[in-house]
């Protein structure tokens, strides 16, 4: 790694960046790679890189206050981990997201995060990665679908084509 980052020796050293190829980009040069190129969330990739250097540490340890670890970030980390084939990180992200979504009395901030997480959970996660969707479904249907009846969630569900079918 040190040699690769020496100035002028390799692309990483010249540009001071590391370019990761996604698993999707390397499979059969498929023309439909779901827009994978260039769509990674920078914060999620930061977590991914932390995980690569600290594989036995939970990535929430990156943020001592815990305030920066939002539900949407956990979903984005889940997506990046799936994309790059990091099952351990994917399981961590799923566990953290599940823990956040299943708080007994979510406050307004968490409800907003859950609402914001609907789109990436239902439109960006691969259909084979149903665990995140199941987790969100269980939360949406808790208490006789109370969240589904709220104007905030109804507006989001109506705005995302096909989402109502995935939730019901």
3D architecture notes:
This protein has 168 residues and is mainly α. It folds into 2 domains: 1-35, no CATH class; 40-167, no CATH class. Helices cover 57% and strands 0% of the residues. It contains 9 helices and no strands. The protein has helices at residues 11-15, 23-26, 42-53, 71-83, 87-101, 108-124, 130-145, 151-159, 163-167. Helix 4 (71-83) runs antiparallel to helix 5 (87-101). The protein is elongated, with a radius of gyration of 18 Å. It starts with 10 loop residues before the first helix and ends with a helix. Residues 26-38 have low confidence and may be disordered.
How does the SSE layout of this entry go?
Layout (H helix, E strand, L loop, with lengths): L10 H5 L7 H4 L15 H12 L17 H13 L3 H15 L6 H17 L5 H16 L5 H9 L3 H5 L1
